[in-house]
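Checklist before submission:
- one chain only
- standard amino acids only
- sequence pasted in full

Submission:
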Amino acid sequence: MRVTMIGTGYVGLVSGACFADFGHTVTCVDKDEGKIARLQKGEIPIFEPGLGALVRDNVEQGRLSFTTDPSAAIRDADAVFIAVGTPSRRGDGHADLTYVYNAAEEIASLMNGYTVVVTKSTVPVGTGDEVEAIIKKKRPDAEFAVVSNPEFLREGAAISDFKRPDRVVVGADDERAREVMRDLYRPLFLNETPIIFTERRTSELIKYAANGFLAMKITFINEIADLCEAVGANVQEVARGIGLDNRIGKKFLNAGPGYGGSCFPKDTLALMKTARDHKAPIELIETTVRVNTARKQKMAQKIIDALGGNVSGKTIAVLGLTFKPNTDDMRDAPALDIVPALQDEGAKVRAFDPEGMEEAKHMLKDVAFASGPYDCVQDADAVVFITEWDQFRALDLDRMKKALKTPVVIDLRNIYRPTEMAAKGFRYVSVGRP
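Returned file contents:
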């Protein structure tokens, strides 16, 4: 099939490359000339394991191309995906749908023949109705259907999530559109992937409900971690004990500094706004947002307390800046709250992240960026682990201790075992463990 992807951000680029790998002919469109030029040269603007090879292979095979000109791409397409950004709107937290509606206008003016317009972007309930109304107003003669097809991609594992998903959700009322979507996802039938067909509004809400629940699950285990510290219990063992219950599940039960990234923060805010607008407030989500925001400040205080309550003039080495490993995404990363909070108390911060430092340089001020983990900890008064990159899991602890001015480790991701760190002579502070 002929597929056009409007937007070459994280979702659009990964989805376009994977659809091409399924055998479809995909054109990715973006107004950013610099980004398209880089993609045409084989340069990948984001860090996602395996994406570079996937893009290059499908470009070489003639199934994937990039352009700033949407004309032919939209005119010849069987399906046009809207995969543009929906950032939080200033003031009320609702999703800013400007780019979505602009894309709908553009599609309406260019499409030719029956076209399935698919919202891949995360959008509030009712957005598909508005997209349909925009197209109908501009092109009352057009044959088309608007479909909701939310993405469930984890950064760092996006290709696997697209090709081996837990489920595919399609919101469509038009049977002809459903057949197009079945054809697009036909390769997944071999894996017996559940493909859930729903009404469009239900599909839109599934995405927000899923992210809201996962954000709530993370926040729950973080609160339990605080209780564990107060009573002398071990949050990792608590998490395992409850996670083995199939009704709960073991994923998203790792205590830490709070959730961040491109999805959970903005999607929980948008869900709150939608619920309030419809006079059905979701108090669990509102509490989750409030507790997660406070969590990041609490982690900064945890670091300060580990250094005797005063960090003025002290150098703190921070290992890991991105909101999770295997991505260069700094959006709403806990480090963006923790580092400035330490600086406000007079600390000097030196940091290292395997992939996120270029982004971090635009978002963090007065931070010294190191070339590697051992360079980062040299002569520091303490080291803080904020992101659990694999390369931080097997550091030479003797070398690290020798490099530090004082052997203080604050592990906000519980990478190491307390007994091991104590045996090495570190003053070790972790999350939710004795």
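Reviewer check: The longest strand covers residues 2-6.
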